[in-house]
Design a protein that fits this description.
The protein is α/β, with parallel strands linked by helices. The protein is 33% helix and 23% strand. It starts with 7 loop residues before the first strand and ends with a helix.
Length: 312
């Protein structure tokens, strides 16, 4: 935790990630918090907080030290730069800045040192990229990576509060899970994000990464099946040992969203040899996408940066 009196803004506070962010901040003892959302939500109350309208003027006034943004790519492009120019450390959850050369894309357990290179903005990765890179980094460090294939099973909460509410109101055999990603005839943009963000975080720009992303009728919790080809051989026992020792990772025999929901861990298991590839391994992982997959990762970034720059 950093100074509890630091001035914090939560932008997109009425959304699913924003609400979890507020809970984390409260649990960590932060006291000077302001909440922002669209004009439709301005004036509403979130517990003790009155929601302010998020505008270039309100966020660029220079009276915030840290801003967390969970508002979507279009609005982040408009509202993040004024806040950063005014002196706030901006941690943005959208795709707006993730692949920009001058913006660090950070998972603290994997490449936290990159956050210190920021010029006002740090990007928070996609909610599937975060757990994937946390599982891959120990393998990369030990034996190198040749290729990665991943299939994601993403819960409705990844599409926001409305999608969660819609799923809760449907019968099990009448769910309507729309693919809320752009499709170019070959890939969803979600699949492109997963590949390019993984390469950037792991600092392996040529790593072959093939992704297939789908939505599933689960309210919270993303899961991923991962096929990895390593440069050097790695036994299942050694892979388990490496993953068990990795920060933020919990190894279980058969992980799933139920084991991850409400926790801060990336749950990994079912590690086994892949007979279809030389030096191949298969594993399965799950993560609470609203917690470590979004809100917690952003707060850890801010605490890392502000803590590193605070006077001793």
């Amino acid at each position: 935790m950093i100074d509890p009196d630091i001035r914090i803004g939560v932008v997109g506070a009425t959304g699913a990630v924003g609400r979890v962010t507020l809970q984390y901040l409260a649990d960590r003892g932060y006291t000077r918090i302001r909440t922002f959302a669209s004009s439709r939500s301005a004036g509403e109350r979130l517990g003790e907080f009155e929601v302010e309208e998020a505008t270039e003027r309100s966020l660029g006034a220079g009276d915030l030290d840290v801003c967390f943004f969970s508002i979507g790519t279009r609005w982040s492009r408009e509202l993040v730069p004024p806040a950063a120019t005014a002196g706030a450390l901006c941690v943005d959850k959208s795709a707006a800045f993730r692949l920009a050369d001058d913006v660090p894309l950070v998972v603290p357990e994997v490449n936290g040192e990159r956050a210190l290179e920021h010029t006002g903005i740090v990007a928070n990765p996609n909610c599937c990229t975060i757990p994937l890179t946390m599982a891959l980094a120990p393998l990369r460090d030990a034996v190198g990576l040749e290729s990665v294939r991943v299939a994601t099973y993403q819960s409705a909460s990844g599409a926001g509060s409305d999608a969660m509410d819609a799923l809760r109101g449907e019968t099990p055999d009448d769910h309507r899970l729309r693919m809320d990603w752009d499709f170019d005839g070959v890939e969803f943009d979600e699949e492109v994000k997963l590949r390019e963000e993984t390469r950037k975080i792991l600092e392996l720009p040529e790593l072959p990464v093939s992704a297939t992303c789908v939505r599933v009728p689960v309210v919270v919790g993303h899961a991923e099946a991962v096929w990895v080809q390593t440069t050097e051989p790695l036994s299942v026992e050694d892979a388990d040992r490496l993953l068990s020792a990795a920060a933020g990772v919990r190894v279980e025999d058969v992980p799933g969203p139920a084991q991850a929901i409400g926790t801060d861990d990336v749950v990994v298991g079912r590690v086994r040899s892949d007979p279809a590839a030389e030096n191949g391994l298969v594993l399965f992982l799950a993560c609470d996408n609203l917690r470590k997959g979004a809100a917690l990762n952003a707060i850890q970034i801010a605490e890392l940066v502000v803590g590193a720059t605070a006077p001793a």
